[in-house]
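pasting for the record
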Amino acid sequence: MDSERIRRILESVKEGDTSIDSALQSLKVLPFEDLGFARVDHHRALRQGIPEVVYCPGKTDEQIVAILEKLIRQSHKALATRASAVTAEIVARRIPNTTYHEAARVISVAGELAPPVYQTGVPGSCVGTVLVVSAGTADIPVAEEAAVTLAELGSPVERLYDVGVAGLHRLLSRHDTLMRANVVVVVAGMEGALASVVGGLVARPVIAVPTSVGYGASLNGISALLTMLNSCASGVGVVNIDNGFGAAFLAHRINQVPSNEALVEE
């Protein structure tokens, strides 16, 4: 449940269209809803701007469906990450208006009253574009998780894939694209050097995402993680291995107008 929906409930009570008891019934699950196997955090949209997002691994399909059903009733918009095609098919059979972003492994669900994107701030409050860059084609699943999440959050997104350090001319040929981005998310496995290269080229925040792509000595992404953490380029931050969602959430927050600036006209 977000602030706009609560505002509508309160205005309806004020106008006499909704009884106090009915309003209380709508608000009673506001903090969280206990399903036994999960406590669905309906208060998160008020605290952080978007509802709770479902991480699918480790959950049964029935649990995922149940959580999404509760979220969609309160928030009218829901997102699930790292979902298999089988899980997505089961969700789609049970919940209307479900879209599966196969490359990203992300399920998005829109309720009847859902806005086109999550309402995460003042409308039109995004500063610019977030550019998602991947070093190789094998890194695209994590890059797409970031790109789809950003689009759902409401940030304009551009993609620049397969421009790793084994062929830097591919990256440099898109120098204009790099320069116009407000935030850059760099997704790379193997040795993870691309984040440092991009960080040395742009004057914008760079969010580095190490992936588990690579041969044995890459240690399932640890080598890329350490390279990114040891970057000598300024302005590079690092999220956890394969965490495209976390990078997108952070990039979107950076891409928003600070609240004190957004509220100046009020």
